[in-house]
Amino acid sequence: MDIRIGIANTARELAFESAQTAAEVEKIVEKALTAGDVFVKLADDKGKVYIVPAAGIAYIEVGGGETRRVGFVA
């Protein structure tokens, strides 16, 4: 699953691939924002953990991982 997080007052976004499903990511973010948690914690498919301040989140985009084609395009 591709995840892109826009952070307020930052020109770049945080982008990574995760083994978590879209529903799991949505549940984690929704819980953090409604419960007033300080941080949102997500993990990528390589074992890295990303901790983002909940107050600084501008947007989160969760999309299906696109399969990459191998070979030449004519």
TrEMBL record:
Protein name, per record: DUF3107 domain-containing protein
Superkingdom of the source species: Bacteria
A family per Pfam: DUF3107
InterPro entries, alphabetized: DUF3107
